Structures are given as structure tokens and as C-alpha cells.
Amino acid sequence: MATLLAATLLVGGCGGGDEPEAEPTPILPSSSSAEPSSSPSSPSSPSESEAAEEAAPEMPEAAREESTAGAEAFIDYWTEVFNFATVTGDTAGFEAVSAEGCRACTNISRSLNRLYGRGGRIESEGWTVKQIGFASEETASMPAVRFDRARERVFRTENAQPEVFTPEDMTYTFELERVASGWRVLELTEAS
Questions:
Q1: Number of domains in the chain
Q2: Mean pLDDT in residue range 7-29
Q3: How many Cβ atoms are within 10 Å of 106's Cβ, its own excluded?
Q4: What is the pLDDT of residues 53-109, one digit of tens each?
Q5: How far apart are CA 57 and CA 81, in angstroms?
Q6: 148, 167 in Cβ contact below 8 A?
């Protein structure tokens, strides 16, 4: 089952070729979990309006530590930044914790920028970290993270009917690297 990350990679493409831009794909829901919606398309999600009024999350000091505990705190922070970007369209914080060469990160950011640039939006309670696993204490840079993704309503344009994505449990492997500010994501892949 491919999540939206996989769909974003397929739809968003990886390079700057001459191919026409595809429709933006919702950020990381299962491509098989969309269901029709008869809900009105007015922005009524409390999480969306609250997030738009909130300031972007700030990295906690614990997320800067060079340890598995620091990597765990960073993943929690990354999840907050990802959720904030998803419901506001403000990708600056997400991009700041993503390496320039992170293809998945770039595709997520581009998809969000296209979606919000067209007047679209995503209404969601976001992702929740359920479990973070490391092969050993020495492998803090390669955690496997199990997330619960809340129900999402994706509006491709301002007046579009929403696509509804059901809640889903999913696991991703992060490739992290140490930088002066703490950690950043080198790559993100769905675990098989």
C-alpha cells in the first residue's frame, strides 16, 4: 500500500525536466484510502484555523543532542513541523530541517506549495509518532518511525470538494545527519 509520500514522489517527480507539472498530491495519505465526500468545501476545520494563527514550532534543545534521545526528540519536532506545514502551507520550517538533497522532502514541500498556491488546503489533526526504533545506540542516524496519520481532507483548490483520506498507521525510515543546529533529514522512505 503506497502512502502519499510514495505518490508524491511519483506525481511530483524528482528532477527539473521538461515534463508538465502534475496535479499536487495530498501529503502522505494512502493513495487507496481516499473516499468521496459530501461535506461542504468551506474551511471549517478547527485544526486548520488554529494552526494558521499559531507560530511555527521551535526546535527544543533536546532535539539538538547527539544521541538516540536527541534523534527521538528531533523526530518529534520534525513531526510538529511537518504537521504545521501540512495545515498552513508554510513550508519554511520543514525545509529548514530537510537536507537540500532529500528528494522526498523536496517533493513534499513542492506539493504543498503547489496545493496552497492554487488556493487549496489540507484539514487534518496531523501525524502522531507512535514508536521510534533504532537498530542500536550507534545508529541514531537511521531511525524507523511508526506514525498514526489522522483523517485528512484535501481541497485541491479553494472551491473544490474535498478528497477524504482515512486514518492510517505507517512506518518510515529516516536517514538523519548531524549539523551545527542538531539534526536534519537526508532522506525519508516508507518501510516495507
A1: 1
A2: 38
A3: 18
A4: 678 999 999 999 999 999 999 999 999 999 999 999 999 999 999 999 999 999 999
A5: 6
A6: yes
Can you give the pLDDT at residue 181? 92
CATH value at residue 76: 3.10.450.50
Greatest extent of the chain over all pairs of C-alpha atoms, in Å: 50
Q: What domain range is 149 assigned to?
A: 4-13+24-34+44-53+62-190
Question: Would residue 111 count as lying in a domain?
Answer: yes
Whether 100 maps to a domain, the answer reads: yes
Instruction: Give the Å distances, CA to CA, from 44 to 39, 123, 126, 168, 174.
Output: 10, 9, 16, 22, 33
C-alpha span between 1 and 6 (Å, rounded): 9
Q: Which helix (H) or strand (E) holds 71?
A: helix 68-88
Grid-cell match 502522505, residue found: 28
* Beta carbons of 74 and 185 less than 8 angstroms apart: no
Q: How far is the C-alpha of 180 from the C-alpha of 2, rounded, in Å?
A: 34
Residue 19 belongs to a domain: no
**Domain assignment of residue 121, yes or no:** yes
Average pLDDT of the residues in 34-48: 42
CB 156 within 8 A of CB 24: yes
Q: Which residue has the cell 507512535?
A: 130
pLDDT at 138 exceeding the cut of 60: yes
**pTM reported for the whole predicted model:** 0.78
Residues 6+ apart with CB under 8 A from 46: none
